[in-house]
Sequence to fold (866 residues):
Amino acid sequence: MLEVRDLSKSFGALRAVDGVSLDVSQAEVHSLIGPNGAGKTTLFDCITGFLRGEVGHVRLKGREVTGWPPHRLVAAGLVRTFQITRVFDELAVLENVELAVRSRLGRNFDMVHRAATLGEARAGAEEILELVGLADVPTLRAAELGHGEKRVLEVAIGLALAPEVLLLDEPTAGMSRAETERIAGLVRRITDRTSILLVEHDTEIVLAISDRITVMTQGRVIAQGPPDVISRDPRVQDAYLGAVDVGNA
Amino acid sequence: MDLNFLFVSALNGVIYGAFLLLTSLGLSLVFGLGRVVNFAHGALYAIGGYALLDLMRRAGFGYWPALVVAPLLVVPVAIVMERLTIFPIRRRPEIYTLLVTFGVSFMIIGAIEYLWGTGTSLIQTPAPFGGTMSVLGNQYPRYRLVAAALSLLVSAGVFAFVQLTPIGLRIRAITDDADMAEALGIDTKWLLSLVFGGAGGLAAFAGALGAPIFAVQPEMGTGILLDSFLAVILGGLGNLPGSAAGAFIVAMTKSIGGGYIADWSIALLFVVVGVVLVFRPTGILGRGRVA
Amino acid sequence: MARVVVTQDRGAPRARLGWGRPALPLAGALLLVVFPFLGAGTFTTTLLTEALIYAIWAMSLDLLVGFTGLVTFGHAAGFGLATYAAGWFAREVAPELPLVFVVSQSVVAAVALVTGFVATRVSGVAFAIISLAICQVLFQIAVGWRAVTEGMDGLVGVPLPRLFGRTIVPGVEFYLLTVTLLIAVYVGLRWLVDTPFGRTLQAIRTNEQRAAAIGINVRLHKWLAFVISWFVAGLAGTLFVFMKAGTTPMVLHWSESGNVLAMTIFGGLGTLIGPIVGAIGFVFLRDEFTTHFRAWQFAFGLVFVLVVILFPSGLAGLASRFWSRP
Fold:
């Protein structure tokens, strides 16, 4: 579904992303892990059009999409969420998702109909909220959600765009154990409608839900493979996993 | 193609560029340091001219002493302005300071018109440098060359200050990364006020220096304000060398273009800026922030 | 206003405000229509006419600033350009109102398309400065292109407008024309901001990056908002040149841009009603003030500064909705 080849991005002398390649297959959950500053978010930015990589290619379902602006990528099915929650605070939960659904329906230039009465958008949004478990608070102002619920709303907005590949940037950041597991379950559930590339710090979750893992450090990929292989890789343990006991993964 | 005409136009461009340099550097420093966009910068330039006027006419100063004193009078005004109107809103998004300084410029120009009227005052070219001199076969007003040389000298001084002094180092550090600088214990609060005062002084100096050339009237700062903004945007916000380059590009475009198409010079300028922004939103040198 | 305001009580279903309470704008419209028949003198009616023209202008600014988040320092451009296009055409060709509108609106739209393309490539501060520069260019042209604009003297002798064979005289008739246009513009913009397009603009205002990430073509939308905003400002400008029977380059001066900005901000961004109130307040206050004091510009600046510093919530939309920090 998604192919990244030899992507590089520098900021002056700093090579934030250095020749990174990875694949995401259909219905796969592919995790990207690595210490802080490894270049994971920068990689996301490059793939999703918020930054321009100097070198490298991105292909979506075989199509060359390198350097496309974000809105074109979204239309093609490549969607991302953000590390720092950016929901539309002043809008209600349902409206946040409706906004995305209307975008997916190609309604952004509709100057004729009243947004609030677009039934199709409402129905689509309600379905998504049902899926992620926020269906009980549709009219609540997004700013009033708890942190964990806001992260879930982020994912919901992403899903509402009917992506082929969904990039999740640290979806469980700052969440409690229970909330983290809830998201993990959600991620596995949605593989029937989309493929997922996610950045995560919670190694337990990563090892539990991923089909494949890519490990990055200092802008480079140092290991790539299924969880059991990664957890045994000494380079990875050195660089990142440290003394975590992963015998039960 | 009349080469002499072209040469004189280019020379005019260099002269104006030297003035624009003073105001653009001030703008750029203040923005880089505090993320403040000072719309009242042109008004401070104007106060410089009027301060000079009053010093000469009411207090009987000669031109050169007045030239030194006028900016010194404006520095505290600028500092007070920063403390009262910008410091209180420093945490808000950048557009707020632009709005507030926009309001302050109304105040200053309104005060100028109230106190001095709306007429234009001319200042005689200061004694030793009156008349013209020959430059490559063309007669050119001597004072303009002197004034430009002074501007360049002062600008070089500003660059040296920023590059070589400890305070300058602090300024550069904060410009690069304000949060990190604060974490390292660099006191940013009064630094901004001082730099703001300094920038105001630079603008006032430019106003006083240019008074014999460009005349003194309430709107004298508007044109140079806009040009300074364009210069700083062209060069990339917060980027000093970029602002310098931008200043000369703006000045040359206006002078050379203006020499041939008179009133349409600003339209040409806009086209130039537009073209640059279309291809390089981060400024010509590509290192500024996208505004 | 069709904004969802929710209760503190989580989970309690909250009835959606449909079209908001139409009672208030309706009452206001009614009041405006009958105003001249309530015994107000000609002077007041004329002053109110000017205020309502400004109100249309201010609403166009609100669309750009309050709903799309693009603060502009050059909004006198579309307004002033229309005064020249409409005034020139009315005087040199014919003052038939529909025809004049077609001409002036076409000119404004054409210029807006071109300048907007460049201006919307940048955001925030740079956009504000570029829009100021655009206005300055028009100002210079108005002063310099003497053959057409008659320079600093401006266009004079613009005839009275004619509509369907009937000349519209100053006073009550022109006032009613203005009120009609005001109501039409208000209804049109009110509708527009509730469409998916309008919601998209507001999403851009709230968080540009996020908007891009949900598939919104931000630049194209900003461009469209820019052009629409100029278009509506142009409507106001066309009325203005008829009201004043002429125009001068001062209509394109940056202080005019500051005036309309003030009206809109003080009235309340993102509300459409706010700019109307702001415009009326501004015109009447200025008239009152300048007859008694000389230092209007100074006082205006002072109030502007005070409002920006002290009443951030009074600048309703700016505080909470703009530039959400990432």
